[in-house]
Amino acid sequence: MPNYKPTLEILEFLDAGPPPIYIGFGSIVISNPEKMTEMLLQAIEGSNVRAIISRGWSNIGGPQLPHILYLDDCPHEWLFQHVSAVIHHGGAGTTACGLRYGKPTVIIPFFGE
Q1: What DSSP state is assigned to residue 20?
Q2: Which residue ranges make up each domain of the chain?
Q3: For residues 87 and 23, what is the distance between their CA atoms, to the nearest angstrom?
Q4: pLDDT tens, 44-91?
Q5: Closest residue by Cα to residue 88 from 56, 65, 63, 50
Q6: Which positions ≥6 away from 28 have C-beta within 8 Å?
Q7: Quick check: 63 and 40 in contact, CB under 8 A?
Q8: DSSP secondary-structure letter at 65?
Q9: What pLDDT digit, counting tens, does each position of 11-41 carry?
């Protein structure tokens, strides 16, 4: 992480408003990523927040919207310092990193959790 250089896109998004929430499910392979994207977009709209959605192994993605950034790879250790909350699958690393930076954390269980 010491050598990580965020892209201009990430920096501009972070500077464009209040800290966004982070949503990411990492290595979870979602059977219907389009439906998941639809649910996420509805939740974001209903909550009136900005969001960074990690594409993850399911390659989640949707329409380009000014208050949503779809992200490929970015170290949580860097990113979580810049978000307001972390919504994720409950992986140990993601959980630990969110807690390390004192971010409210919501775990969405997918199986066996």
Answers
A1: P
A2: 8-106
A3: 5
A4: 999 999 999 999 999 999 999 999 999 998 999 999 999 999 999 999
A5: 56
A6: 56, 57, 58, 89, 110
A7: no
A8: B
A9: 999 999 999 999 999 888 898 999 999 999 9
In sequence order, what E strands does the chain have?
Answer: 21-24, 51-54, 68-71, 85-88, 105-107
Helix (H, G, I), strand (E, B) or coil at 9: helix
Contact assessment for residue 17 and residue 76, using Cβ atoms and an 8 Å cutoff: no
Give the integer Cα–Cα distance in Å for 50 and 48: 7
Quote the tokens at residue 73. 């790879």
Cβ proximity of 21 and 28 under 8 Å? no
CA dist 83 and 71 (Å) reads 13
- Tokens representing residue 108 in the block: 């969405």
Q: How far apart are CA 34 and CA 98, in angstroms?
A: 26
What is the architecture of the domain spanning 8-106? 3-Layer(aba) Sandwich (3.40)
CA distances from 83 to 30, 34, 57, 104 (A): 24, 24, 21, 10
